[in-house]
Target: FtsW/RodA/SpoVE family cell cycle protein
Amino acid sequence: MKVALISIVPEDSVLRWPVDLVERSASMTPFLQKLLRINWWLVAPMYGLLVFGVFAIESAARHLPGGGESFASAQKRWILIGSAVFVATSLIDYRWFRWLGIPMYAVGVGLCAAIMNSDSEVHQFTIGGLSFQPAQLAIASGILMLSWLLQDLPRLGSKIPKVGWLLKEPVVKIGIIGLLAGIPFLVVVKMGDMGSALVWIPVALVALIVSGVPFRYLTCMASVGLAVLPLLYFVVLPKASERGMARIELFLDMLQDKQVDVSGDAWAPYNIAIAVGHAGWSGTGWMSTADQGSMHDRRLIPFHTAHNDFIFPVIAEEQGFRGGMLLIAGFALLLVVCLFIATAARDPMGRLLVCGVVALFFAHIFENIGMCIQLMPITGIPLPLISYSGTFAVMCMFLLGLVQSVWIHRKPIRAYEPVAKEETQDPGLILSNEIR
Model:
């Protein structure tokens, strides 16, 4: 017995829109396909943090020449540049960027080595009025290099007869990660930029885990690291960076409630911790004055770097506990979305790339906020998307553009094939199935 089920839907009915959508998607250009794949859960927290940062910068930089409005306006211009970079990077297949890894890495490490013996506290280059820190370029390119090499090693090993199996061994992965992370790490430590050097540790650790290095190797490496830690602390670090050693010793003294000079070396960490702690639930208010209890208005927070390295104490003081937790929640949402994208990556390179970006962001966030609440020694490291950092803001948006590209290109983009709409004798007849 055959029963024919016929659904008659008028041509102009709203019920026809799924059919039209399928017909249109079949002839959609690759550009439109990519636009429709944008992950707005990544875009929303990114721009939310950027806007939050603009207001924080305006308040934090009010004691500097030109006032907070000039720095906020400059940050807006950097955001516009970063937005163009973000969109362009998102729409380009991330696998094409692996060819930029080697030249970017070489330039970044080379520039770090060029200013390694500089006496300046801020290790940066200024070209045509544009300042940037080469350590940030080195780590961004290092993530690209690691994700590319760790993916292609097994493929390369299968093409080399007899000795190709060596490239698939975990020891080779450990050696490559150690080499690519170790060279810039040592150079940046010699520069005295302990904050940027420490970022390499979580990035390298995440690369080891995500690339599939067995747990027994990681345990062995951790044991060796703990064994040589006293040697590094008492012998290597004092020779490599006297300033870094002094900051760590000051941090340990304050952690143990020892007597420190709060009018000297301990002035900054002491006042920063008080500014974070005294604000209460709601804070003193945006652009608050000394009469409202603002320590920043009394210049007790280092005002020369309050818009950059020490922007979190300004936010915590003015917005209180709720503002600080809102900021941390925004970062948490951004990183969770990135981890979700990593699980949807189409290949190991995409997964390693996204996890490396997450490690970099987490390291910056933990170090910056941690040094303001005495969980970490003072390090000159900006808060991603919040601090006034110029080229670093663009670099962060470039890295998030790579993450977006991993999401957009998680499935192949179909070639453009216009589909002609077939004519039917009865336009209202759109579904006819037979059930036996």
